[in-house]
Known about the structure:
Elements: H1 2-43, E1 47-56, E2 59-63, E3 69-73, E4 86-90, E5 96-100, E6 113-115, H2 128-143, H3 145-151, E7 158-162, H4 169-179, E8 183-188, H5 189-195, H6 200-213, E9 217-222, H7 237-255, E10 262-268, E11 286-289, H8 295-306, H9 317-323, H10 329-345, H11 353-377
Parallel strand pairs: 7-10, 7-11, 8-9, 9-10
Antiparallel strand pairs: 1-2, 1-4, 2-3, 4-5, 6-8
Amino acid sequence: MQLKEEVKRSFYSYTTSTNELEEENRLLRETVSQLREEVERFRSPSLMMAEVVDIIDKGAIISLPNGNKFMVKISNEIKSLVPGESVLVEQRNLNIIEKVISSKNFNVERFVIMEKPDEKWSEIGGLEPQIREIKEVIELPLKNPELFKKVGIQPPKGILLYGPPGTGKTLLAKAVASSTQSTFIEIVGSELVQKFIGEGAKLVKEIFQLAREKAPSIVFIDELDALAATRVDIGTSGEREVQRTFMQFLSEIDGFKPLANVKIIGCTNRIDILDPAVIRPGRLDRLIEVPLPNDQGLGEIFKIHIRNMSLDKNIKTEALLKKMKGFSGAEIKAVCTEAGYFAIRNNRTKVTHHDFLCAIDKIKKEEVGGDEFTKMFG
C-alpha cells in the first residue's frame, strides 16, 4: 500500500514537472519568434514621408521633403487618397505603402507663441492715431462684421506696422487681440527662415490652418522683412527656399476671405526692403507707421510706467522728459526700471529725481555704445 502511494506521488510529480517544462518551452518559443520578428523589422528598410500632390489614373504625384516630385504607384490596400494628404513611401521605388492619418494636434504649436493677451489700450501712450486706425481695420470687422456687409465694403485682410524698434508695434497687436478676445499667434520671420529651411512652406500652411482652427485669431509676424524681402532672380539655394516660403505666405493671405475672423498683422523696421507683392491691395495693404513718440507721447508713456512706482516728492517730470527727447517707448520703460534699481541699490523704497537722471544717462550710454559698434562692425 505504501509503495502504491509513493508511485502515485512520483507520477504526479513527474506530470507536474512535465507540464511546467512544456509551458516554459512554449514561452521560450514565443520569445524566440518575437525576437526574430523584431530582427526582421529592424532589417527592413525605413519608409519615407511624402505629400500627395495629385492623383493620376492608378498612380499619384508625390512631393518629397527636399522638394523633388515623382510619379509613383499606389498600394491596392489604400482605398482612397486625395491631394494634400501625407503618405509613407518605400525608399527604393517611392511607391505609396500607407496613408498617414493627420492629427488635430498641430506640430506647429511647438514653434509659435500662442496666447490670449491681456494688454489694454489704456497701457499704450502717444499712439492715438495708430490705435484709431487699428480699431477700424482689425477690431471693428471682428466685432461687427454685419456692419461691413450692410455698407457693402470689404475690410483689409491685414495691416503692416512699421517704424523704429521699441515704438510699441507688438504692444498694439497684443492690445487689439485682447480687445477682440482673439487668439494671438506670434511668429518671428527670421526664425521661420533659419530653423525650418526645407519645411518653411509647409510650416506656413500649418500656421494659417492653426489660425483658422483657433479663430477668432490674429497672426502676428514679427521681422517680416526676413521673410518678405525683395526677391532676386539669381540666388543661393537658401535664398530660393526663402522665396518658396514667401510664395506660400502670399498664397495663404490670398486664400482668406476679407470678412473671415482671422486677421494678419505684419511688423517690420525695414519697410524699404519689403517686396511690393506683400503690400499690394488685397494683402497687407493698410500701412500704419509707428514713429518715435513726440513730446506729448513722451509724457503719456512716462506717466503709464511710473503710475505704480513709489516716487519721491521732488520728481521734476518736465526736466526728465527734456532729457529723454528722442527716446522710444521701450527706452522710457527701461529708464523707469533702471531708476528703480538705483533706489534698490541704495536701500530705498522711493525713487528720486537723481535716480531717473542716472538711469537716463545709463540708457544714453548704451545707445552710444551700440551706435559706435554699428559704425565699426555694421
